[in-house]
């Protein structure tokens, strides 16, 4: 046994190449014997390193799957909130346009100052529980920001905030989907690597047993 084959090789599981979010690309083992360090090298350390790397990819897969589900629930809520705030804005702007189209300035002032009929709608109190409400004309809305925090915003500022949050959520969702596809490809590579190393070791052990068998047994079989 040479000195090089008895030395534990440096195990490189992942490449320096990474995806845009910094997830490393798995290294495909094309030549198992060279990778493990020679025909007499032990494979236990290599198999353990492969399993550890596979476990890390699975952990990332679990976290990203949870993030994706959370975003897929969050984005429709943001869209509904944005749609409602835009409805309130359009309602106010519609009354202003109606007042500006009146020829008599006195009538215009009357329309602008007249209290419009409130809008009847329903809002969600909890899952499957809704209540009726009347919405009066307003230039201010209250938005939940999370962690039991609610702040008031003027309608234009609220629309700008919601649009930015929607854009950020869509970007994060797209990145999460892309990362999940990338990670699952790396998991497949790791599983193939593990199978190749394991099968190579099984084949090597079988060949060793064949060489160690007495010549008489071999000739008897033939």
Fraction in beta strands: 15-25%
| Domain tally | 1
What is the oligomeric state here?
A: single chain
In whole angstroms, the N-to-C terminal distance is 31 Å
What structural category characterises the helix and strand content?
Answer: alpha+beta
Determine the mean pLDDT: 84
What is the molecular shape? rod-shaped
* Number of separate helices: 6
Rg calc: 33 Å
Q: Would you identify the regions where 5 or more consecutive residues have pLDDT less than 50?
A: 1-8
Biggest sheet, spatial arrangement of strands: 1-2
Task: Produce a short descriptive summary.
Residues 159-186 form a coiled coil. With 222 residues, the chain is an alpha+beta fold.
What would your notes on this structure say?
Binds specifically to cytosolic chaperonin (c-CPN) and transfers target proteins to it. Binds to nascent polypeptide chain and promotes folding in an environment in which there are many competing pathways for nonnative proteins. Belongs to the prefoldin subunit alpha family. GO terms for molecular function: tubulin binding. With 222 residues, the chain is an alpha+beta fold. The chain has one domain. Helices cover 63% and strands 16% of the residues. The protein is built from 6 helices and 6 strands, in the order αββαααββββαα. It has a two-stranded antiparallel ribbon. It has a two-stranded antiparallel ribbon with strand order 3-4. Strands 5-6 form a two-stranded antiparallel sheet. A hairpin with a 2-residue loop joins strand 3 and strand 4. Helix 3 packs across helix 4 and helix 3 runs antiparallel to helix 5.
